[in-house]
Design brief:
This protein has no helices and eleven strands.
């Protein structure tokens, strides 16, 4: 079993930055894909960014390319999401997930965190 704990969310003005963290415990995730999804009220859970386990390749939704950066620290079993130039439309609950490969749909992922709220004011 893997436990994921997200942190770093909060309230920020448009144009500001936040860094989300997702700390994993239960097993090493060195060879696992990790991803961030987000879900706004009344909407589906959408892919934001992902990073593969073996190569470290990164993938982004078009809406966040150039503004968000996903990274991982295998020694700490932690994945990060640096979010810059935040916009009000980035407001959502952000979830990290672990899976075998980076996919843009939620269902293939095996484990999920509880989420952290990001609110961007205009």
């Amino acid at each position: 079993q893997v436990q994921l704990v997200e942190s770093g969310g909060g309230l920020v003005q448009a144009g500001g930055s936040l860094r989300l963290s997702c700390a994993a415990s239960g097993r090493t995730l060195r060879n696992s894909a990790m991803a961030w999804f987000r879900q706004a009220p009344g909407k589906e859970r959408d892919f934001v960014a992902g990073i593969s386990g073996s190569s470290g390749n990164t993938y982004y939704a078009d809406s966040v390319k150039g503004r968000f950066t996903i990274s991982r620290d295998n020694a700490k079993n932690t994945v990060y999401l640096q979010m810059n130039s935040l916009k009000p439309e980035d407001t959502a609950a952000y979830y990290c997930a672990v899976g075998r490969r980076v996919l843009t749909t939620p269902s293939p992922y095996d484990f999920w965190g509880q989420g952290t709220q990001v609110t961007v004011s205009s």
